[in-house]
Specification:
By secondary structure, the chain is mainly beta. It has a single domain (3-350), classed as Beta Barrel (Porin), CATH 2.40.160.10. Helices cover 12% and strands 50% of the residues. It has four helices and 17 strands. It has a 16-stranded antiparallel barrel with strand order 1-2-3-5-6-7-8-9-10-11-12-13-14-15-16-17.
């Protein structure tokens, strides 16, 4: 085993052990007196800062299987040119070497060790007036009420321009979003190698979103992506009186041209208590697309649970099972993973750092 591989594995193991110890200590100790760094908040906002590791087992339709131990690091922040944050630059750094992955291999199990981090998103955002936001650069596709099941993977990226209008009293919809850009460079996560794509366009989206009441919200969009026309709709309903679930979501898409198809996701969410929650449902995907790699073509049942050991540290097992015929022997039929995550930003907030 190479020295670099040993170093990565030792670092990950040490980091996770430290996270567990710090998380347990934070959960048992009283909340400290916050130390607010106003001078830092004037210029910077940290929106995400977390580390995770997971064991993943995937069995293909043919019966062959792979397993891997992986890790994930993600950070997202904002630099503000003015104190109100009307003009800012937003960037994110994460692991994962392609458009549908935010994970690096540790070298245990399948896959060679990976130790690269990439600036995957970097864009300028302007909010000259309250109802208007303009974004230019490298950012994530926007799914609305759809999730990465029928929309774009949460780890995906694109280059382009986006305008968001939030004027529900005048335009009915809470949000109207128009995006023009370029989706591609699937194995080129570094945003600095994709800025040249700002002069090209293969993607257009028009999306509307509306919260009808405290119970119901929905979105609908038309997307053109590299010659493919797709409609998407998603609706979320809060219904805690059902007892079995607190809320459920129905999302679907209609691929219009070429090669028409249809897919959907029906999911329910249940919060048992302040520490334990579940998400489960059924999905059907008709075509290969840039949605979550957990949900390739075919019909699947899935169940995910999250247990918060402390406010910072959580465990998340996931089981996904294909049902019925699958189109290829290589398509996954069974997928199991267990994820351990440590929210560094939550720890910082707990101690009043941010």
């Amino acid at each position: 085993m190479q020295i670099s591989k040993i170093a990565v594995l030792i670092s990950i193991s040490f980091l996770l052990a430290l996270c567990i110890c710090v998380g347990t200590t934070a959960g048992q100790s009283p909340t400290p007196t916050p130390v607010i760094h106003k001078e830092m908040k004037r210029w910077f906002d940290i929106e995400t800062l977390a580390v995770s590791t997971r064991y993943r087992y995937v069995e293909a339709n043919s019966g062959t299987y792979t397993s891997a131990q992986q890790y994930q690091v993600g950070a997202r922040g904002r630099f503000k040119f003015d104190s109100k944050g009307k003009y800012s630059v937003v960037g994110s750094i994460s692991t994962g070497n392609n458009i549908q992955s935010g994970w690096n291999n540790t070298g245990w199990g399948s896959g060679d060790v990976q130790a690269d981090f990439y600036v995957k998103q970097l864009y300028f955002e302007a909010k000259p007036i309250k109802p208007l936001a303009i974004q230019v650069g490298g950012f994530a596709p926007y799914n609305g009420e759809n999730t990465e099941i029928t929309g774009y993977d949460n780890d995906s990226y694109m280059m382009g321009e986006r305008v968001r209008i939030t004027a529900p009293k005048k335009l009915y919809f809470d949000e109207i979003s128009l995006t023009n850009g370029f989706v591609g460079d699937n194995t080129r996560p570094n945003v600095f190698r994709r800025f040249k794509r700002l002069s090209k366009s293969n993607y257009h989206q028009f999306l509307v979103r509306k919260t009808i009441s405290k119970r119901v919200s929905f979105s609908a969009d038309y997307t053109f992506d590299s010659g493919v026309d797709t409609l998407r709709q998603g609706v979320k309903v809060n219904a805690p009186e059902l007892k079995v679930v607190d809320s459920f979501r129905f999302e679907n898409y209609q691929r219009l041209d070429p090669s028409p198809g249809y897919g959907f996701g029906l999911t329910g969410e249940k919060r048992v208590n302040s520490k334990l929650s579940f998400v489960g449902g059924v999905t059907k995907i008709s075509h290969t697309m840039l949605n979550a790699d957990r949900f390739p073509r075919g019909t699947r049942l899935f169940l995910s649970g999250t247990y918060k050991i402390t406010r910072e540290f959580s465990i998340n097992p996931v089981i996904i099972q294909g049902i019925g015929p699958l189109l290829s022997p290589s398509i996954p039929r069974t997928r199991f993973e267990i994820i351990a995550s440590y929210n560094i930003l939550e720890a910082f907030r707990h101690y009043g750092i941010f």
